[in-house]
């Protein structure tokens, strides 16, 4: 597809339907990390992944590739994972808006009521708030925490739409891409390398990202096509 679409902008319903069919069997998720380093206590990181178990290992340096900007704040703990997005475009839109709530057109009005968008508790509350907004409120989203230690932070969060689920599970119980491909995983590393952002960065100075030349994966005959994410500087 050669259409240009801004992350955080609306996508035509017909296009969503086409991409949802093409991405059937895929797993697209956004996640929240918290640094366990005493030096960086309270620091968080928001990202996108198709394989959470693999991704946290990258962040913690257990396997190579990707997550290079989070190296100095290791070790990291995955606090929660949000999945159920119909396409990677949808998940990337959510991730970008979660990272840049004061810039995102879809989120900035709601984010204006936050004293600060930084910090673990605020990031959890922001995610819950975003899921009640028009771009995402009709999706069949699941929010999974990996420890009851963090579920208490959802107490003051907005009530999620009734079709959404909140669960606590171990990392091993979390699903991942059901049609794994080296191509998709390699692109995930490339996307994260280009887009990594944590709370140390000033989101108000960042340009709004765009998706260019998005091509779907896994056609009916399971042939793969290249997929790329580019950024406007």
From TrEMBL:
Organism: Prunus dulcis
Residue segments, region Disordered: 196-233
Membership in a protein family: Belongs to the SLX1 family.
GO biological process: double-strand break repair via homologous recombination
Function: Catalytic subunit of a heterodimeric structure-specific endonuclease that resolves DNA secondary structures generated during DNA repair and recombination. Has endonuclease activity towards branched DNA substrates, introducing single-strand cuts in duplex DNA close to junctions with ss-DNA.
Domain GIY-YIG: 26-108
Subunit structure: Forms a heterodimer with a member of the SLX4 family.
Full protein name: Structure-specific endonuclease subunit SLX1 homolog
Keyword Transmembrane helix: no
Gene Ontology CC annotations of this record: Slx1-Slx4 complex
Cellular compartments annotated: Nucleus
Entry keywords, A to Z: DNA damage, DNA recombination, DNA repair, Endonuclease, Hydrolase, Nuclease, Nucleus
SUPFAM superfamilies per UniProt: GIY-YIG endonuclease
Keyword Nuclease: yes
InterPro entries on file: GIY-YIG_endonuc (IPR000305), GIY-YIG_endonuc_sf (IPR035901), Slx1 (IPR027520), SLX1_endonuclease (IPR050381)
Record EC number: 3.1.-.-
